[in-house]
Amino acid sequence: MILLEYHNKIIEDTLLERWGAEKWEPVETVIADFDGVLLHLTTPNADNRALLQISISIKCFGELKKYGVDNLLQKYYKDYMQGGSEAGYDVTLMVDCAKVPADKAKEAHNLALLKRNCLAAPFYHVFAEIEQKKSGTIVELRYRDEEALFLKSEGDRAIVIFNISFKDADDVVMAKTFLQEYADARRTMSNAPSVSYAQKEPPMELKGVRNVKVGESNGFVSFVLFAPHVSGTKKEKTIDNIQIFRNYLHYHIKMSKAHLHTRMRNRVVLFLQVLNRAKSEPEKTEKKTMTGKTFKRD
Fold this sequence. Notes:
- The structure is a single chain.
- The protein is of the alpha+beta class.
- Helices cover 38% and strands 22% of the residues.
- The chain has helices spanning 9-18, 61-65, 69-77, 104-112, 114-119, 121-131, 169-186, 234-243, 245-278; strands at 28-32, 38-42, 51-57, 91-96, 139-141, 148-153, 157-165, 194-200, 215-226, 286-288, 294-296.
- A five-stranded antiparallel beta sheet has the order 5-6-7-9-8, with helices on one face. It has a four-stranded antiparallel beta sheet with strand order 1-2-3-4, with no helix packed on it. It has a two-stranded antiparallel sheet with strand order 10-11.
- It is flat, with a radius of gyration of 28 Å.
- The termini are far apart.
């Protein structure tokens, strides 16, 4: 199994290619990222193609603003913020590719983490409450049309709940089997977060939350994160891994189905080979005499 990347590879490669280039070509690229996020790379100034504009649109950006996403973006991208955003997008950064940073790889990677850093704001808010031993209200992020992410602090722990809508009934079965491996792995791993899966009905932590999607095609994956997972150096890694969990789950469901289909096709080919070998050869009715003449026996 693989882990998906946390950053956007297209942004990173574009910046590394343009920094230090002698000539800049115009750019006009719209990128559809995970979770319905749209990114727009463009050179808005025809007279100065060294300027590269990076814009992002996130469905739940209004909710993110409640938990300090503006301050977080100022922390990471202060030198690139222009005060306004492109029409139809929530955040816009302006990069002057004529000014090459001292560490190009590090700066390109940081800019490519724009989506991750936006979605990290509510996690920092909840994790701060855990460090202060507070129990706060539930953070609800409607980051997809039919799905949501819930964060809840309960004194010494944080609970992260994914409300996932499965379009295929087979995906429900495979997700349950896949997530059972998480529970089994915890028995042999120390300090691993607790993972549970509920089908149709939401867990008790979401009692009283309105407009929660329920039904046969809806599943709820809950992570219980304790203080060691949300403090110190592990905090950033926890945010990275939690954010890509939903995509990670669907990726491996699709890969598992592709593997099963490949095995079934190979088995069909094997059965056809057996059937072909089982066919009897047609009996020859043409005979030859000792002189070489041929005749047919009725």
